[in-house]
Design a protein that fits this description.
Blueprint lengths: L6 E6 L5 E5 L5 E6 L15 E6 L6 E3 L3 H10 L4 E6 L15 H9 L4 H33 L3 H13 L15 H16 L3 H14 L4 H6 L4 H6 L1 H11 L6 H11 L5
Antiparallel strand pairs: 1-6, 2-3, 4-5, 4-6
Helix pairs in contact: 1-4, 2-3, 3-4, 4-5, 5-6
Length: 265
């Protein structure tokens, strides 16, 4: 097994059972490993940092510098995926705010609450607000790219928004996922629909529905998914019906009409 700081290579066929999070430095880190979801490699551990990966097509290898571009490449690449990771031995500090202050550590160890703790809490609050501002800015830039027809660039930004999801979020309604995450997930599906990448569009729409996006009227009628609905009507309806089951089965209604002669001249 690689040691801490070592770089190591992994080749995996899709689907993969490794999930990634955006670190505070904007890079991609392993956040979860689940062999039930896809292929894994025993060398990969939670906390490891992605250094390089296969480009979205061809034999090129990209530096893993932009989280949104990384997720785009993983989702759209046909065939196997190449990764280079850096071993970090489970270090999850890439998700943390400022917990490194000496006074803070001493107070926490002693069970006390003092100036060091207050200072770190204030810095964390300011950092969280700045992250929220930056996330809103990235989201709005993604919308602008989408409206201008720059769908691939929009995907990069919306994927970044997903990666900037605040850890341990709990909403007023006890939701564990922010509304921005839900909408950005839906927007990614719309981008793939416009690009006519229908298989990955279906996958992204499923992700959005799993995340809690439930504006089913928009999904079924709005322009964003028009291309998907027209290209794959059966797969589209089968997917959406799993989350928004129709009150009446359309086939039963049609059969009822035919049986009683409704609509016939």
């Amino acid at each position: 097994m690689p040691r801490v700081g070592d770089k190591y290579e992994v080749n995996l066929e899709k689907p993969i059972g490794i999930s990634f999070a955006r670190g505070n430095d904007g890079k991609a880190y392993v956040i979860g490993i689940d062999p039930r979801k896809g292929n894994i490699d025993e060398k990969v551990e939670v906390g490891d940092k992605m250094v390089e990966l296969s480009a979205s097509f061809g034999d090129d290898v990209w530096e893993a510098g932009n989280f949104g571009q990384i997720m785009y490449a993983i989702k759209t690449r046909v065939g196997g995926l190449y990764f280079k990771f850096e071993k970090r031995d489970g270090d999850m500090s890439f998700l943390e705010f400022d917990n490194k202050d000496g006074e803070f550590r001493k107070e926490r160890a002693g069970g006390n609450y003092g100036a060091g703790t207050r200072e770190v809490q204030m810095r964390n609050y300011i950092t969280s607000k700045e992250n929220e501002r930056r996330r809103n800015e990235v989201f709005n830039n993604g919308l602008e790219d989408y409206q201008n027809g720059n769908y691939q660039d929009a995907i990069y930004k919306f994927e970044d928004v997903l990666g900037m999801e605040p850890p341990n979020y709990v909403g007023d309604n006890f939701a564990r996922i922010t509304p921005m995450y839900e909408v950005a997930s839906y927007n990614i599906a719309c981008c793939y629909s416009k690009m006519k990448r229908f298989d990955v569009c279906l996958e992204s729409l499923n992700d959005a529905l799993n995340a809690g996006f439930d504006d089913y009227e928009k999904i079924r009628t709005a322009d964003g998914l028009k291309e998907l609905r027209e290209a794959m009507p059966e797969k589209f309806n089968r997917l959406v019906d799993r989350y928004d089951e129709p009150v009446f089965d359309p086939k039963l209604v049609e059969g009822f009409k035919n049986f009683f002669g409704f609509g016939k001249n």
